Amino acid sequence: MKYDITLERIANCYYNLGLERARLRDLSGAAELLKKALHFDKYQREARNLLGLIFFEMGEVADALVQWVISMNLLPEDNPADYFLEQIQRKPAILRICSDNVKRYNQALDYAQHNNEDLAVFQLNQVIGDSPNYVKAHILLSLLYMRRSEWVKAGKSLYLVLKIDRNNPKALVLMDYVKKKTGRAEVEQSRLRNVFSHRKMMDDDVMMPQEVKQISPWAVSALLLLGVVIALFVFYLLMLPAGIRRANSKNNQEMISYTEKLDAANQKMGDLSAANAGLQKEYDEMKEKLDRYENQNASFMAQYQSLVGINNALSTGDLTQAAQLYTALDQSAITDESLVSMLSSIKSQMEGSVYLRLQELGSTAWNAGRLEEALQDYTWSVKIRREAENLFLLARIQQTMGNTTEANQNFDSVVGEFPSSPYAERARQARGY
Amino acid sequence: MINFEDEIKRFKPSLDVDQLEDAILKVDLTDMNDLMTQLMEEALKKGNDPS
């Protein structure tokens, strides 16, 4: 049968055309021709392998693998597809990255078709970052940019597509649209018109060389002077104010720095003043406590000395001295426990027996005619313990010594203070009621 | 005028590497040679058919 040879020839012809297109980097066109070659002869090994390579170049790794696997299955002997598959299998990371990219592209496409443009753009940019040759991703991204009227970005994406696949039909159509939107199309058309125009060159188009003029030395000096003046003018007008501003700025910075330091010092001083006030207050309180303690101590010593003096006087029998010290003692001021017990003992003696003893001594002195001594003894007895008897005797001796006023007062006291005692009636009689 | 919505809807998902096996099985490998053979077999069958 001759038709199989004819079909092989047709297939071979399509393959040659496809190869030519592929060499010119028209990958889309080449792919179409190679597919036709395979329609005529599925055993056209080179066509299938080249189709796989084209798919791989355009980022469609799975499609490339499909072609190479089929190629190996149909013609396993000396097939270059074996080398391609081995290269990919040898580096599983590449396959994994490609697989991830395909998944991300599909996800981005889903986002784009469901109006999640931002997510789609973000995802596609990541995909393109990992697979810069992924044509479909570039075209989808450019479409999304175009929908957002980001013409420049769309144009860049399409430019990359056309670098990979020079005659990609979709990219060409979109690029044309982008050029119209950006005004690029008009510029290119204008250039083309200029290149292919048959307009004759006019006089204005010719660049005429300028005549070189001779400058006199005076003119040179004048120009130099003018240059210096302009330089000074520029310096004073532009550079000097800038310098002044810079200096002012520096001064201000220094001023701010000093102010901050001064604030810090003031704050420190305030803190120290507060600490000083606190310490002074503490010192005053401690001093007050110390003074109080010293006063208490002095008072304690005085009370102790008085009580010891009373005891000494009692032990030596000097009742008058004991009475003087006892009556001079401020008993309410004694709070110390040891002194209180000492006072209690002395008090029981003084108000239990000593006052009676003084009264007896006074009576003895009176009987002996020593009226002054008797008066003193009675007086001390009354001061120690005020009783009806010793008060009456004091009044009586005062009456005897002519001190009528004092005697009457004491008689009245006996009547008033001890009305039920026998001395009350005697006091009334002595008073002359 | 390009309708962006339609253009985007025309895009098809890429073939995933995980679906490679199914894709290979689904590929139609019929070529012109197969079709010609089939046609000739049918023609021969008809030629031999006494009806």
TrEMBL record, chain A:
Keywords: Coiled coil, Membrane, TPR repeat, Transmembrane, Transmembrane helix. TPR repeats lie at residues 11-44. Residues 262-303 form a coiled coil. The chain crosses the membrane at residues 218-240. PROSITE patterns: TPR. The keyword DNA damage does not apply. Pfam families: TPR_16, TPR_6. This is Tetratricopeptide (TPR) repeat protein. It comes from Oribacterium sinus.
TrEMBL record, chain B:
It comes from the Bacteria. This is Uncharacterized protein. It comes from Oribacterium sinus F0268.
